[in-house]
Amino acid sequence: MKISVSIITAVFFAAFFSSSAFAQKAKSDYDKNTDFTKYKSYAFAGWQKDSDKQLNDFDKKRILEALKSEFDARGMNLVKADADATVSIYIVIENKTSTTAYTNYNGGMGYGMGRGWGMGYGGMGMGSSTTTYSENDYKEGTFVIDMYDESSKNLVWQGVITGTIKEKPQKREKSIPKKMAKLMKKFPIKPAK
Question: Most buried in the list 16, 121, 146, 180, measured by CB within 10 Å?
Answer without folding.
Answer: 180
